[in-house]
Amino acid sequence: MSTSKSALHGIRTSADYFISTFLFGVMFGITAASAGLENWQALLMSATSFTASGQFAALEFWAAPLPLGTIALSVALISSRNLLLGMAMTHHFDGHSLGRRIVWLALLNDPGVVNSFRMDAEVDRLGYVTGYGLSMMTSWLLSTFIGLQVAQVFAGLDLGAIDFAGPLVIATMMMLFYKGSKSKPAPWILSGVVALILFEIGAANYLILLGSVLSGMIVALLQARQGEASVDVDADD
Amino acid sequence: MLMPMIDTPTTLTAIAMMAGIVYLTRLTGYFVGLRLRHIRGIQPVLEALPGCAFMAILVPAARQGSISEVIAMACVILIMWRSSNVVISTGVGMAVLLFGAPWLDSLL
Fold this sequence. Notes:
The complex is a heterodimer of chains A (237) and B (108).
Chain A: H1 3-12, H2 15-34, H3 39-49, H4 52-60, H5 68-79, H6 81-88, H7 98-104, H8 110-116, H9 125-154, H10 165-180, H11 186-200, H12 205-236
Helix pairs in contact in A: 1-9, 2-4, 2-9, 3-9, 4-5, 8-9, 8-10, 11-12
Chain B: H1 8-36, H2 42-63, H3 67-83, H4 86-104
Helix pairs in contact in B: 3-4
């Protein structure tokens, strides 16, 4: 499938997350307005950062004098999972120029990557993820704009319960990943166990992420080596 | 009381900084992966990473969540397990958070 057709396929299959992203975007617009951001500033942030969780985290600290270092650290920590998403796509973006990969990676997004694992081999992964990202970006910008427009209406409401919406969306992506991935679940299960242990002993968030992902990587590597060894034995027989 | 104003250049600096950081995380992971891809057996390891990252976020969130948050997450997982329908699962989860939280969280 060509890159452009794959991009269109990405757009067509993004309806579910278009809607959930839209809900988040409206929330972001409302929160940004209440934090004192002007409309064009909130829209500029959504257009350039394109990261729901990172933007919400930044707004937590949005007060004069603006703590740039704290904002940078929190956005970097929250966005660190992008490192892993990028690494996961290493073997799937071949056949494109370096320039295209560098530019299009700006639209790398969690649901696009997760859903791309469920696609047939003929689908061009970079095109698919980028199409998916375009759809997400459209939803994110439109909904941010609407959120900014309706902010006055919701100014008096307590929307604290929505804080947990982020983990809920990540849970949907985990389930799609679980159902679509061809790899065994042992690495993710161990990651979860290690995350729980590190959380219980009071480790910092970045240590929880680092420790659990590293342990998952080690198990995945051992599984891969074990699989190769058994293939070698079969070949010898 | 009026909130102290943040001037436009500082706001623009923060927005540019955020955009740069997020873009770098997207770019860096991919290019680190390119450096590692020649290692034997690395592909399944790299492809397991998103699941590991999701678990590292989900487990602590569920552990420290209130009753309503844990029930909301259980609903999302159950509906995704049965139907893979993101809209319905997220909608049910959000409904539990918005409408069930006052009652559920008062149980403990």
